[in-house]
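Readers of this paper often ask what the protein records in our data store actually look like. Such a record has a labelled line for the sequence and another for the backbone structure tokens. The tokens are whole numbers drawn from a learned vocabulary of local backbone shapes. We quote a single record here, exactly as it is kept in our systems:
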Amino acid sequence: MSGEKTEQPTAQKLKKAKKEGQIGRSQDIGAWVGMLAASIMLPRTLGAAMDHSRELMEKVPDIIADPDPQVALGILKDGMMSAGWAVLPLALTMMAVGIAAAGAQGGIRVATKLFIPKFSRLNPLPGIKKMLGPQALWEGSKALIKTGVLAGVLYMTMKDIVPLLMTAGRLQVVSLLGVINDAVLSLIRAASVAGIVMAAADYFVVRRRTNKQLRMSKEEVKQEHKNTEGDPHVKGQIRARQMAMARNRQMADVPTADVVLVNPTHVAVALRYDPEKGAPRVIAKGQGAIAQKIRELATENRIPMVQDKALARALEKSVEVGMEIPAEFYGTVAKVLAFVMSLKTKGSAAGVHRNPNPTPAVA
């Protein structure tokens, strides 16, 4: 059936879908990659924060000894600036990861159409279908898998740490904090790697589902091709108008020709020669009715017509309107122009004349 959506979406359809925000992407990829990046950047951020805090605490005795409000405000300002500089690398990393994750899943584009209110979005039926359809089944399965995997990661990470924490009374506070810090970072990193693997699977499922939704019927593909390339009937009409305009332009130039080569009735080529602009140019040409019109205009404007069957056919076939004649025709056309000049000298140039040196063949 022509209504079945069996065809892959065209480039135009995909472009429109991106513009409307209909892109197959998983939000989990950016979240898990961001968490992994944070686990790598966090120790450095905390280390920098601790160093700045230590510097501030060293200034506290001076404030107590000399409680000047200006000095206290200056230290507070330095503390806030230090905290900002300490957190800045982490914030920039998270932002870069978010942008990269979005770009890797189909580019970054603001779907402005999503901000336009649509009453169809208030229809509860699509939402109910999603809750009861295959998408809901996948979301539920994904939640169960995610919970199971994270529980397994938590168990594998903590099984060696718990016995150590049970004997934490024997450890120094610094050593205990180091153990806890390493355990937390290991847990975050392991969970992030597992989450990225699950998010990659989710991405492929979402991408496949979105591509399926964007599939087109053969009729839609034909219609889009017609809209993109243009209706053949309309294109034909435009082409016909363009050809008519071109004919009108070349007919307007016929009265300025120096000579019209004819064949003797089926072909006509009008030539104009201006020594300052180079070789003679074809300013009008045609066969049949167009040739007849050129001859009529030449008669009305007393333009000499010279019968040379081979030369007229060769020029009509090989030279476009507005172009100079090729070098191989220079000698032959020069003889025709010389013949026309001799007719003008005698005052009998108008009308049709036979070329006294007809061209037997033109390469």
In short: DSSP finds twelve helices and five strands in the chain.
